[in-house]
Amino acid sequence: MKAEIVHMTAENIDKESLKRAGRILQEGGLVAFPTETVYGLGGNALDFKASKKIYAAKGRPSDNPLIVHIADMESLPKIVKELPPKAKILAEKFWPGPLTMILPKSDAVPLETTGGLNTVAVRFPSDPIAQSLIRYAGGYVAAPSANTSGRPSPTLAEHVEEDLGDAIDMIIDGGQVGIGLESTIVDFTEDVPVVLRPGYISLEMLREVLGEVRMDKGLLKTDSKIHPKAPGMKYRHYAPKAELSIVEGESGEVVAAINRLAKEAKAKGETVGIIATDETAEQYTAGLVKSIGKREEEETIAHHLYEVLREFDKYQVSAIYSEAFYTPRMGQAIMNRLLKAAGHKIIKAQEENEK
Ligand code: AMP
Ligand code: MG
């Protein structure tokens, strides 16, 4: 099966194609579509067979639950047992938008969709194409990121085609997504809300609205035996084919260390890629250098992260050295993805330079 590809923009929605896509979903098929975070691989969330198809198409472990996407608040009561007051406050503040909430599930949601859990992850995306598709599909679309399991999430329709073009029915090409990193996930099954995955909506933004909010311990202690609570966060993920190392420290030290490491790797026959920023790109002397964005505008780094990792796959580099991006607002989300892509391989620039 080759996926049919249809093109549209948020400003110029092709309703007829979306109606057709909605019908495909209602009949149990799979359609990839743009959202403001990354591209999603949609199936009818209330149809256990469609959820099974999603896992099969992605090669996703079946204990890694799917996020159910809705397109209005009225759709929520059918799929959740209750909406805790704090969750209601967040919904009013951040929906539609890049926020996913974990809530107790109702019987309408099959266990295949939730990976066997009695909770369900729910998101109301702001992307107009996504919203329209969800309505045509009957209101409930399960959609993980539309990549093969383990690969970087897709931020362009071409990425989806690369991974899933032969495995799904339709791809809606809405151009490049806005944010480029997956939604922030907040768990409401404990007294204090817990962030299970950092995203565009930061811990500080959540605390401003709710007061006390915790970060999942499994996210903070990267090499401990504490597992993250979101089943999907324990897998190596977002990963390019090459060995990726993150080099951290003061900017000048980082450039010097990467230049040395790149030279050494090259001498050993490796093809080297370097993830730089606009501020540093010209200071690198070896390897294929790609600027991921501007430190001064940190959204540009989030926006290009997955695209850069996929580009290096295309060039078949075997070793990638990346600067670290502990930027003030989105640094937590960016570094969470980059660390997982690198299998937590971090090099301290200063120690490297003292060798
Ligand atoms: P993706 O669909 O690729 O954005 O990944 C969805 C993420 O949400 C994974 O990390 C899942 O483990 C997590 N998730 C989905 N449903 C639940 C749930 N009921 N409880 C905890 N985490 C969840
Ligand atoms: Mg994913």
Automatic annotation (TrEMBL):
Provenance organism: Candidatus Blautia faecavium
Designated name of the protein: Threonylcarbamoyl-AMP synthase
One Pfam family matching this protein: Sua5_yciO_yrdC
UniProt cross-references to SUPFAM superfamilies, sorted A to Z: YrdC/RibB (SSF55821)
Main localization, broad class: cytoplasm
A GO CC term attached to the entry: cytoplasm
Domain of life where this protein originates: Bacteria
EC number assigned by the record: 2.7.7.87
List of residues binding L-threonine: T37, H69, R123, A143, S183
